[in-house]
Amino acid sequence: MTTDTFAAHTISTPTTADRLDVAGIWSLRLDPEDVGEQERWFAADPAGEDVRLPGSIQEQGFGDEITVDTPWTGMVVDRSFFTDERYAPYREPGNVAVPFWLQPRRYYRGAAWFQREVEVPASWQGRRVLLELERVHWESTLWVDGVRVGSERSLSTPHRFDLGELDPGTHRLTLKVDNRTIVDVGPNAHSISDHTQGNWNGVIGSLTLQALAPVRIRHVTPLPDVANRRVRVGVDLASGTAGIGHGTVTVTARRVGTAPAEVSVSVPVEPEHDRDLLERGMTAGGGHVDVELELGEDAPLWDEFSPALHELTVTVETTVGDTSSTDTRTLVLGLREVGTEGTQVTVNGRRTFIRGTLESCVFPLTGHPPTDVDAWRRVIATCRAFGLNLLRFHSWCPPDAAFVAADEAGFYFQVEGPVWANQGAAVGESRPVDGYVFEESRAILQTFGHHPSFLMMAHGNEPGGRDVEFLGPWVAHMQRLDPRHLYTSGAGWPAIPENDFDNIPHPRVQRWGEGLASRINGRPPETTSDYSSDVEATPRPIVSHEIGQWCAYPNLAERQKYTGLMQARNFDVFADFLAASGMADQGEEFLQASGQLQKLCYREDIEAALRTPGFGGFHLLGLTDFPGQGTALVGVLDAFWEEKGYCTAAEFARFCGPTVPLARLPKRVFTGGETLEAEAQVAHFGAAPLEGATLAWTLREDDGAVVDSGTAFEGTIAIGNSERHGRVPITLPEVSDARRLTLELTVSAGDGAVSANDWPLWVYPAAAPLQASPDVLTTADLEEALAAAGEGRTVLLFPELGAPHTDVALGFSPVFWNTAWTKNQAPHTLGITHDPDHPALAGFPSDGHTDWQWWEPLHGAHAVVLDDLPVPVRPIVQPIDTWFSARRLGVLWEVAVGEGRLVVCSMDLHSDLDIRPAARQLRTSLDAYLATGVPADSLPQVSADALRPLLTPAG
Fold it and tell me: What is the DSSP letter of 702?
């Protein structure tokens, strides 16, 4: 074991008369052989190394070096790391670098023992003492002065230990924390897995001892009544004092952020009112009191547009026998009700549209989630800036600080139990996880259910087993237990009648396993497709599950950010692979080009959802990168919630927000002189209808010059997305060269609010005979091409390759999730990169990356692997290979053969060009380039023998 020092994450709780902060230095002993209880370590004096709590032991340098035998928590689907010779250097002791997730500097899985002494004040004489640990990973067992108190195993809520009455003076606390798999919640559950936060060991957040009142508040449940502007407050009481008594429960509400304005009500508690509490002293159970509190007719509601909060204070004053006591509990309250109206979610009766992304517990610096409010304010502010209104916590529940930050901001959460019972785990099969699902769900609701930001809940993610039979009763039970939220069986599935909403995966642009047959890869681009058939097939709202999953190339410069526990050793491996292929200088180029395509694909995913009448919403996967499951770089933001340089919040928010103009376009590529009729639509889920709104359109050149403009609609734009708002009839200009125009729709309302969105359109000249130079040979015959080039001619070769020729599946979209975790699902590339100023593209304007005008040329194209050529060839148009393979690929490239010039194009630029204007225009541009006199000696010289293995037709 080693003890390198890393920064510890510390949060302190102030010490008061009734509360003692026990954060600080504890003594640590690791117990990898699990012998501590047998050897009675709890009875020994502290004998270990100093460690700070709150914090994890790994972030403070305790644990083992990473080896190929590290007992990871999480599945490795692609096991080539353990066998492939390419990974051999990364399996060497002292240099292990795993490619499937972020790698901690130290790893430990097992029991860890923490000890310290505490001083109990004299004023606590005769009072019961509670130890509360805000978040523990995972099972904790406590001894006080060598006597076992008990165990806790929640992954989601604080661990609490009733220590009984402690005499004033010094006492020894011994805490055993075990981060092995206590219950099989699934190896990939983000609550425990090395795919995300890491399997840390320790305690984070607050650590306190508290002297309890003889009669105390056990739990407070506020149930808002929006229509009547009041709240029913359920107060559960507990007592350690026997005897008949009397008392009062007082509930006070104060509006946060306004001038003092309090309302309160008191309810007497008498023996006849609550016999459990005061006749039996609650020694055999608990008592309950309901208090109705009127907040006033002008009490503001809480939602994403106006997050008005009230501070609710509950005070219990009781006298039982000769003992009087007072206990107080303060919590936040938002007047908020969530429901459904047909197939859409409502907040306070108003239809809303869920625009969510995942938070998978990815915090690379610490390897565990933050418990301070400021950290979560930053995350939520970023989501809001990108037009989102919800975070879905994938198979874990955040700490209280996250809810506090969301309450303040008017931001919504979908919370999940710490379960992904799949990949070997399962629910509904009488395994221990079944009971744990109910146990954790109840604990989550009791601890965090009062937060208005807590909008929705699932038991966990993508269950296996007898899920329908098990989760139907779970949903029904949770609905009865706590009606303040909407419930769904599981994120992903099953869609069952008990659900308040269905969180299902199929309404999205590309589904799992569709590959090149998906809409974005298999059908020409348009903006008319939506998911109306899915909406019509269910009576419940659909919030589509994990849409997107579009990858960008690794940001290799990002490695410098990993200054804490987690290291991006996976990025080190990918950088080495790129350098070995001679493309180290293209890393940033690949990132930016693939990122632009990623942004384009997310936009189509989001707009398709927004233009679907009656749709409930979506969860992205995701706004940020996911560092596990083979490294899934699916975010326009990195794992630190920071931009990568190709997508700003302002850009993203144009197509993702409360009000988004939408244009329904039958296609994106046109011929000059055509008439375009776009249908205008607005997805408006704002605070109120837009009165006196104007929906205007403008068609502009790239330089900003206005080609045409007009008004599509004037009037009221209602809340929703079911209405169409007129047509935009445009006769496109006759053109003699390729043009890119931009159609912009702008919504302005009487209050001056403006939302805008835009779509690039490509307009090409009408069909005309190709003007190929008679000096250029165009052929599909390889030997003819090689012979002609050898004789000094210029040759354009369209090689007859066919899909079996290479194992590279080239599509329009980038890689889905990643090829390692999906077992090599197509496509295998991340779009294309090219020099937009290359003369071969002079007649085919492009920006250096894939855009919609490339769909025709790339559809059915084949990438040629150029790694085996004797000299490096920089393709004119280069597909970007996945980072696991890092091959130099080409679909348009040029070499010298003998005295001649050979241009190889494996895109279809020769068939049906009369109905494929983009392919025709690219061919026209290429023919013009071929007619130029590029000297062969300025090109890489490659022999015919070297080219034949690459270009021989597949047999």
Answer: T
